[in-house]
Design a protein that fits this description.
It comes from Spirosoma montaniterrae. This is Family 2 glycosyl transferase. InterPro entries: Glyco_trans_2-like (IPR001173), Nucleotide-diphossugar_trans (IPR029044). One of its GO terms (molecular function) is transferase activity. By secondary structure, this protein is α/β, with parallel strands linked by helices. The chain has two domains: 192 residues, Spore Coat Polysaccharide Biosynthesis Protein SpsA, Chain A (Alpha-Beta Complex), CATH 3.90.550; 74 residues. Helix content is 44%, strand content 16%. The protein has eleven helices and nine strands. Strands 1, 2, 3, 4, 5, 6, 7, 8 and 9 form a nine-stranded mixed β-sheet that branches. α1 links the parallel β1 and β2. α1 runs parallel beside α2, α8 packs across α9 and α9 runs antiparallel to α10. The radius of gyration is 21 Å and the shape is globular. The protein starts with a strand and ends in a 9-residue tail after the last helix.
Length: 326
């Protein structure tokens, strides 16, 4: 049996995976591992490119673009290691992190899963990454910025206080290591999620099986937006801070974890904001002696996104199993 099964989901990113695997082989010592790649119908020559360099990679085809949860679950079912790592294709190791994570799980049976801090491509610590459910929930509310707003949100959605400063409520699926027996008890990733939010919801269930830790001093590079030519996040604004797929998935998570009331409050919040953001911009235009309908693209985009959320309203409200793909 391998010490570790590494599962990577591929969707048209063979070059990223080759770089990722090069870093895995360069830095990993002292443990045995296998690599499983699950392909989401890339429709290219990803398999040939990767297996030409790493012939021992185990390849699985989903047959359709199944997203993150379903593809990883397929890999989990076929994994032969005594530990399992979910690893993004756009990641790079910089030291023997995998052996350290395996050791942590081997020596701390009360730990359910481990992760590491994320570095940007220039090896700077990526700031403001969420590790608690409260941080996520506070980010969903679009309110006037300021300390008073921050204080109010903090009171409504406080963060837990753990004895161990390295303990968190959830670990990013970009790099998450756990044990097959922990998955058996917690359940696999929820396959209603297409992308985003599934690791947050999974963190809630994994956390019931033991502590979730970000190992101190443990780091990896996450080339987020690595498949973009500019390596940049899409432009965000105060009111349009999430991609529609991100927000739909997070609304599904809220409904599953916190119930109907929390979900309805958020949906009502977004609906009521539509006239407010339009009226606010029109008032600013009039104050500046401009046409009242100048520069409303940001507001129109927000209304469009709320419309997308509402397409999934009844299905989410009733918590129906399905495939929440925008």
């Amino acid at each position: 049996m391998y010490d570790l099964s590494i599962i990577i989901v591929n969707y048209k990113t063979p070059r990223l995976i080759l770089d990722c695997l090069a870093s895995v082989h360069e830095h990993t010592r002292g443990i045995s591992f296998e690599v499983l790649i699950v392909d989401n119908q890339s429709g290219d020559n990803s398999r040939a490119q990767i297996q030409a360099v790493y012939s021992d990679v185990r390849w699985f085809d989903m047959g359709y673009n199944a997203g993150f949860a379903r593809a990883n679950n397929l890999g989990i079912r076929h994994a032969q290691g005594r530990n399992i790592l979910l690893l993004n294709s756009d990641t790079l190791l910089i030291d023997n992190l995998l052996a350290r994570c395996v050791q942590a799980l081997d020596t701390q049976p009360d730990v359910a899963a481990v992760g590491a801090q994320q570095l940007s491509r220039d090896r700077q610590l990526r700031p403001n990454l969420y590790t608690t459910f409260g941080q996520m929930r506070r980010a969903f509310y679009i309110l006037p910025p300021g300390q008073r707003t921050d204080n109010w949100l903090q009171r409504q959605f406080p963060d837990p206080v753990f004895t161990d400063p390295n303990q968190v409520e959830w670990i990013s699926g970009a790099f998450l290591m756990t044990r097959p027996r922990t998955i058996a008890r917690a359940g696999a990733l929820d396959e209603s999620f297409f992308m985003y939010g599934e690791d947050v919801e999974w963190g809630y269930r994994l956390g019931k099986q033991g502590r979730l830790l970000l190992l101190p001093g443990a780091q990896f590079i996450h080339l987020e937006y690595g498949s973009s030519d500019t390596h940049q996040q899409h432009v965000v604004t105060h009111i349009n801070r999430f991609k529609p797929q991100v927000q739909v998935s997070q609304l599904v998570w809220i409904r599953k974890q916190y119930g109907v009331g929390a979900y309805l409050v958020l949906i009502l919040h977004y609906i009521l904001l539509i006239p407010i953001v339009f009226a606010g911009k029109i008032a600013i235009n009039l104050k500046n002696r401009q046409s009242p309908f100048t520069g409303l693209s940001n507001q129109r985009e927000f209304a469009r996104q709320v419309g997308i959320f509402l397409r999934f309203f009844w299905k989410t409200l009733l918590n129906k199993p399905g495939f929440y793909k925008v």
